[in-house]
Design goal:
Distance between the termini: 35 Å
Helix content: 25-40%
Mean pLDDT: 95
CATH superfamily of the largest domain: FAD/NAD(P)-binding domain
Shape: globular
Number of strands: 25
Largest sheet: 5 strands, parallel
Oligomer: single chain
Bound molecules: flavin-adenine dinucleotide
């Protein structure tokens, strides 16, 4: 039997485990409790053109529009076509999507032309999917909770296993399902697990990281210590962004509060820079606490009653469209190494993810990579390989200082001055070698911050989530170019090449 190691227990990891468990020896390592992930936080839902007046080609169109045309067209086509079937597979696995009179109850989110967001357990869709998948796999695979993978072992061009603090583990295939990098920013919606080391591990093993400059900021995060995300589905139900005078902030935009995330986040950012305070008014939504019980409760715990007063909000880091470059099966440049979910850059999101497409991407690629492993990965007797050495250890800034700098210098609106300052600040740390053992999370955050900054400097245009003050428009010369990192080098390559 083949041994497959999955790193991460979010929806991508659990879904892959579900597909593989009957035919492989599956081991999951997850660095916190199994449920501690961005997946468990997902509120709005999962997108699929299930409505009778909708069609996968509309979903395709909206995804391409949001991504500003630089998405992988073929993959978007396949994913949106297969979405409805994947919803049925989730139902078979035990996910109970909300229905009304026998039809799916569908939410709407920014930049979707149709109601096509399926949700489960109201605003706790991610948690509902996680629980169903967990129940499917918990007795069929071995799960090690609170065990971090600290290195990938590589022999020549192929991955042979992983290292954890408990030892070395051999595998016929390794799946990275380690999620995103939201914790790089001081204000973010992410779980504390989202520190990006899966990307860094893949990079050290020889994989390509690309599109790192495309960081999506979510417009409506409650301005409070717990930074509660207020789903776009709330605006889909009629919630309105207003300023202190009660004026609608997006009144001059055609789709108003349902403009794409990049647009809304940029408008709010500008308003905040001008000293305005922004609020999300949800008081007109009937039965808010029934439709959004989690958000209602979380806001109240932070001292805000959504029915009593508009909620103070601001944008925060939410999602990375870039990551480990993969093909249509989720395969990376390193043999036997796969990457799925937010850690991967499959190209389906282009420069800006359409709301509720990331759970879909996770489920889609979990299936594709499992199918590839079952049919094409040979079981073989191999040695353990060896850990790929990362670059020489040097001093690092504190995590807090890094997060604050990323927010102020590499945030929603980027200027050459700030980016160059950030690059110099990061580089200054490389001059101080240290013999101290640097924790992987800190090292990964530093290296990924450097790549995001360097790519943001290089891309002299504004596109999707990447907005340059000094290059405010899209540039046709950048349209077909991706910025990639591999073997310590940054290169500009033809998109899809
Ligand atoms: C608040 C919030 C709301 C969202 N709402 C939606 C939504 O409504 N719809 C939608 O489509 N998307 C939504 N998203 C985005 C979506 O939730 C994520 O993109 C998606 O869940 C990522 O899934 P994943 O399995 O790739 O990663 P995650 O769910 O983040 O899981 C990563 C896993 O990897 C583990 N891990 C990381 N590093 C290591 C290591 N070194 N060793 C061992 N384990 C490791 C973590 O502990 C975790 O278990 C939301 C995100 C947030 C933060």
């Amino acid at each position: 039997m083949k041994t497959v190691i999955i790193i991460g227990s979010g929806i991508a990891g659990l879904m892959a485990a579900h597909h593989l468990a009957d035919e492989c020896n599956v081991i999951i390592f997850t660095k916190s409790s199994y449920k501690d992930s961005n997946s468990a936080r997902a509120q709005g839902g999962i997108a699929a053109a299930v409505a009778s007046n909708d069609h996968p080609r509309n979903h395709f169109h909206d995804t391409m529009q949001a991504g500003k045309g630089v998405n992988d067209k073929g993959l978007v086509e396949m994913m949106t076509k297969e979405a409805v079937g994947l919803i049925h597979e989730l139902e078979d696995a035990g996910v109970a999507f909300e229905k009304m009179e026998g039809e799916y109850a569908l939410g709407q989110e920014g930049a979707h032309q149709h109601h096509r967001i399926l949700f489960a357990n109201n605003d706790q869709t991610g948690d509902a999917i996680m629980m169903a998948l967990w129940n499917q796999v918990k007795n069929r695979v071995k799960v090690y909770e609170r065990v971090s993978v600290t290195a990938l072992n590589v022999n020549g061009k192929e991955v042979t296993g992983v290292q954890t603090p408990n030892g070395v583990w051999a595998a016929d295939a390794v799946i990275l399902a380690t999620g995103g990098v939201g914790q790089l920013y001081a204000f973010n919606s992410n779980a504390r697990t989202a520190t990006g080391e899966g990307m860094y591990l893949a990079y050290c093993a020889g994989a390509v990281l690309k599109d790192m400059e495309y960081i999506q900021f979510h417009p409506t995060i409650l301005k409070s210590p717990q930074a509660v995300l207020i789903s776009e589905a709330v605006r889909g139900e009629g919630g309105q962004l207003i300023n202190s005078q009660g004026e609608r902030v997006l009144r001059h935009y055609p789709k108003m509060d349902l403009e794409g995330r990049d647009v809304v986040a940029a408008v709010l950012h500008e308003a905040l820079l001008n000293g305005e305070q922004i609020y999300l008014d949800v008081r007109m939504i009937k039965r808010f606490s029934e439709r959004f019980p989690f958000i209602d409760r979380a806001c109240k715990e932070e001292g805000f009653d959504p029915m009593e007063e508009p909620l103070p909000v601001m944008p925060g880091a939410h999602f990375i469209c870039g990551g480990v470059e993969v093909d249509k099966h989720g395969k990376t440049a390193v043999e036997r190494l796969y990457a799925i979910g937010e850690v991967a850059c499959s190209g389906v999101h282009g420069s800006n993810r359409l709301a509720s497409n990331s759970l879909l991407e996770a489920v889609y690629f979990a299936k594709k990579c499992a199918t590839d492993i079952l049919s094409n990965v040979e079981q073989k007797k191999h040695g353990y390989g060896s850990e790929q050495q990362s670059s020489q250890a040097h001093a690092l800034p504190s995590r807090q200082a890094l997060q604050q700098r990323m927010m102020s210098h590499v945030g929603i609106k980027r200027t050459t001055k700030c980016l160059v300052e950030m690059k110099a600040w990061l580089e200054s740390y490389r001059q101080f070698p240290t013999l101290q053992r640097i924790p992987l999370e800190e090292k990964a955050m530093f290296e990924l911050a450097t790549m995001i900054t360097n790519a943001a400097i290089e891309r002299e245009e504004s596109r999707g989530t990447h907005r340059r003050d000094d290059f405010p428009n899209e540039s046709s010369s950048w349209e077909n170019q991706s910025i990639a990192f591999q073997h310590g080098m940054m290169s500009i390559c033809k998109r899809g090449g």
